[in-house]
Amino acid sequence: MSGLLIRDTIIVPVDNEKKDKLWFTGDVAIEESKIKEVGKNLQGKYRDFEIIEGKNSLTMPGFVNCHTHAAMTMLRGYADDLPIIEWLSEKIWPCEEHLTEKDIYWGTKLAISEMVKSGTTTFADMYSFMDQVAYAVDESGIRASLSRGIIGKDEEKDELALRESEEFVKEWHGKGEGRITCMLGPHAPYTCSPAYIKKIKKLANELGVGIHIHLAEALSEVEDIKSRYKMRPIELMDSIGLFTGGHVLAAHCVHLSKEEINILVNNNVGIAHNPQSNMKLASGIAPLPILLEKGALVGLGTDGAASNNNLDMLEEMRTCALFHKVSTMDPTVLSAYQVLKMSTREGARVLGLNDVGTLAVGQKADVIMFDLKKPHMTPLHDPIANIVYSAQSADVKTVIVNGKIIMKDRSLITMDEEKIIFEAQRLGEDLVKRK
Amino acid sequence: MSGLLIRDTIIVPVDNEKKDKLWFTGDVAIEESKIKEVGKNLQGKYRDFEIIEGKNSLTMPGFVNCHTHAAMTMLRGYADDLPIIEWLSEKIWPCEEHLTEKDIYWGTKLAISEMVKSGTTTFADMYSFMDQVAYAVDESGIRASLSRGIIGKDEEKDELALRESEEFVKEWHGKGEGRITCMLGPHAPYTCSPAYIKKIKKLANELGVGIHIHLAEALSEVEDIKSRYKMRPIELMDSIGLFTGGHVLAAHCVHLSKEEINILVNNNVGIAHNPQSNMKLASGIAPLPILLEKGALVGLGTDGAASNNNLDMLEEMRTCALFHKVSTMDPTVLSAYQVLKMSTREGARVLGLNDVGTLAVGQKADVIMFDLKKPHMTPLHDPIANIVYSAQSADVKTVIVNGKIIMKDRSLITMDEEKIIFEAQRLGEDLVKRK
User: Fold this and answer.
1) How far apart are CA B432 and CA B116, in angstroms?
2) CA–CA separation, A401 vs A356, rounded Å?
3) Angstrom distance (rounded) from CA A389 to CA A97
4) What's the sign of the alpha-carbon dihedral B22, B28, B31, B37?
């Protein structure tokens, strides 16, 4: 068998904190799609493996971006600093109505190229024309959990959306050497009725897939749901059984009552925390330190590029730590290692993936390497602090997904970066004229 | 005369918003240390100028980092996520006691190399062994406002600090082709008595230089000053005349009463807002939207690398905008252009520099160029939004200070990056062992 051997590198395995040091120097052997061994001086044992030199590098699991609308990269920088209603109704929605399959394909390729170049190896996407997203994921070699976004309309359209979602899952779940998994994607309790969400949930259970949904993002949503159903969003979802019988990925979860926190924790709901989006749209401050203290399952996400405006998980980690320190006026909350776990191992669990997110033997080999020899990464007193508080995404030099190198020395292997930039610029300019 | 001509570039002059578009395409001519002309098709007019191709680039004034302790890069990642008292008394102060001239020199070189590589062309520094800082600034070609930090001790030491500060100003103010300016640096009202600060202010006025001081950073400081002097920090400083008769650069200004905001505005005090440091140390949330609404003079700073942990002004801009949007629950506050102004033109004014910070004709040629051809900078719907919300510091490709290129295509011209990283790593490791 042949494989890859990363030699003489600083390793942050994000695995079994009780047993090991959080980081150490050694080698990582990758065979086919999996981590084969992590240890010292492995070269003699894996003589025919391709060597990747790890000196002056840090090797860790790739980032898991728990909530995206990838093709919204097309609207990056198109509408900022606006009141939320104006932003949505005058800018974002009118453009989204004119999105074509081509926009989604190239917008997703743009997003994937950006994500790989910033160390993301898995993302959870909810949007439209999801076949196009799946093609882009399949071709690029990245890992993704994909959901067709569903918004309730009328009986006929709702039924059609269910059938299309079912077809999408049957077509793509498990494809791309297992890199592609699917969920069903009811958009939110304010855009899908409880009855419709129940139907979607039933179908998800039949298909054996999870649910990806937006929950409790804005105060206006909480007020809306309360006035319509006399319950808060997560209480409502609990009352219709959303959280039982299959995995749920809930994006945002900003405005939560104590009872709702308990519901999320007790049902092991995967929470995608999106600090930069929540800040930029002024959605509010999620009670993250309390959620973590209670044992909630939380990962990090960027949300779409129209409300961020990039897909950079390093920024998301840093902002997450700083934001909650000042919000609680406690500099000890959200340590560097805690946010690193959220952006890797915990993030994978939020997506319902148990074989991704650490460098433990047997895990899928989704591995990234940082170049440490940079002024802003010097001195190296604490590699984990430097990654979380000092690094920038251009420091990511090599990216491996499912055992295959997809970026080497910052060059994308499976994607034509020049062509992606050209097509995305052309289509993006055209899109905002179309609306 | 010969000079530089940046050709066919997107220009963001950060000058005279009422007259011009915020950005346009054209050329920038630089003669000796100054901006000679900004316009279209200038090549015929400046035939002997060295051409810098600007296609797919954005050209703007360099960033002004309004508050640093540059050599604290030596302690980057050494102590994080700790209670503030433990952080200071068990980690930072014991190390600082063992700082040598060599640490300061190489730590500052490290900081300057990082700053130049992230587009900063001017910084305001307050630390110790300032001659070493001045050597590093002089050699590197960056612009800086330097202050010897003064902490009150006993009469003899206080007098010595005054004499050393005076000598430093006489030796360095205006040196380095005018790139180096000096201020006096009383550390803070809780470390220098009012009588001592009055003496320092008197000396500053005699020398014709400004004052760089920390003010109202933490709640504990406000309580301390109130209990000692029955006044809040900025009221106390006002009562001893700190703000009259010469420029003052006040770092932080987090905890302010209405009256104190008025004092800062009425005296045109330059405020260095340090969002990431304030967040990481959980110092609090400065009332920035109110300060700006009242017409305060505010720039952005990173503070030292021990509380940030880098010197990246792009991060500082982005975090500033996002932080205040969510703090006020208003997505319209702190627009992209507003933070861009704070990080350039306004920042220069905060330092008391009127000939830096824009691309207006006659201004000092402190100019940076961004590479726009990156996935995360595509599409280019709004170049200003892309710089503030999407860019990373590795996108800065060329840096000019005082008309001289000091970084080209990401290679430092005036500094040996490899040697700086080597020395900083060696000395940084040694420093934390010494304490």
Assistant:
1) 26
2) 10
3) 39
4) negative
Put simply, the answer to whether B82 touches A323 (Cβ < 8 Å) is: no
Contact A326 B390 (CB under 8 A): no
Tens digit of pLDDT at every position of chain B (435 positions) = 589 999 999 999 999 887 668 999 999 999 999 999 999 999 999 999 999 999 999 999 999 999 999 999 999 999 999 999 999 999 999 999 999 999 999 999 999 999 999 999 999 999 999 999 999 999 999 999 999 999 999 999 999 999 999 999 999 999 999 999 999 999 999 999 999 999 999 999 999 999 999 999 999 999 999 999 999 999 999 999 999 999 999 999 999 999 999 999 999 999 999 999 999 999 999 999 999 999 999 999 999 999 999 999 999 999 999 999 999 999 999 999 999 999 999 999 999 999 999 999 999 999 999 999 999 999 999 999 999 999 999 999 999 999 999 999 999 999 999 999 999 999 999 999 987
Name residues whose C-beta falls within 8 Å of residue B214's C-beta, 6 or more positions apart in sequence: B187, B188, B250, B251, B252
- Kindly list the residues from chain A whose CB atom is less than 8 angstroms away from the CB atom of residue B280: 321-322, 325-326, 331, 389
Q: Does A326 sit within 8 Å of B278, measured CB to CB?
A: yes
**How far A278 CA lies from chain B's nearest CA (Å)?**
7
pTM: 0.97
Of A318, A336, A432, the CB nearest to B81: A336
- Single-letter amino acid, residue B277: S
Looking at the complex, report in whole angstroms how far the Cα of residue B229 sits from the nearest Cα belonging to chain A.
26
Q: Is any Cβ of chain A less than 8 angstroms from the Cβ of B276?
A: yes
ipTM computed for the complex: 0.97
Domains in chain B, CATH or no CATH each: 3-61+365-412 (2.30.40.10), 63-350 (3.20.20.140)
Q: What is the 3-state composition of chain B as percent helix, strand, coil, each rounded to the nearest 5?
A: 40, 25, 35
- Residue type at B404? K
For chain A, report the end-to-end CA distance as a whole number of angstroms: 54
Q: Do A323 and B279 touch (CB under 8 A)?
A: yes
User: Would you tell me which residues 285-314 of chain B have a C-beta closer than 8 angstroms to some C-beta of chain A?
Assistant: 285, 305, 308-312
Q: What are the angstrom distances between the C-alpha of A98 and each of A104, A289, A435, B26, B168? A: 11, 40, 6, 33, 64
Smallest CA–CA distance, residue A198 to chain B, in Å, is: 33
Chain B positions in Cβ-Cβ contact with residue A382 (cut-off 8 Å): 77-78, 80
Q: How far is C-alpha A84 from the chain's CA centre?
A: 23
The C-alpha of B202 sits at a distance from chain A's nearest C-alpha, in angstroms, of 37
